[in-house]
Amino acid sequence: MSAVPEIVPISDLRQDAAGVIKRAAGSREPVFITQRGRATAVMVSAQVYDHTQHELEILRLLARGETEIEAGVGHDMDEVFAEARKLLDEA
Fold this sequence. Notes:
Layout: E1 6-9, H1 10-15, H2 17-26, E2 31-35, E3 38-43, H3 46-70, H4 77-90
Parallel strand pairs: 1-2
Antiparallel strand pairs: 2-3
């Protein structure tokens, strides 16, 4: 993420929604939408959103695996690697 985030007041979004969307889609950076000087929403491109959701799912699986290890539940290593390859191929 860049040092200075892009901040767009909601009034500017209303006036130039297409331009703001175009900037968000053309950049891998979030656009922060403000209302009364406070951040109220964050806009990202669909590609960035999908990538973030994919990474979040991997983190959930890792957390679940850690919990299962602590509980003494295990999985076959080949199954784990097959599931990981499947997730990485979807990216």
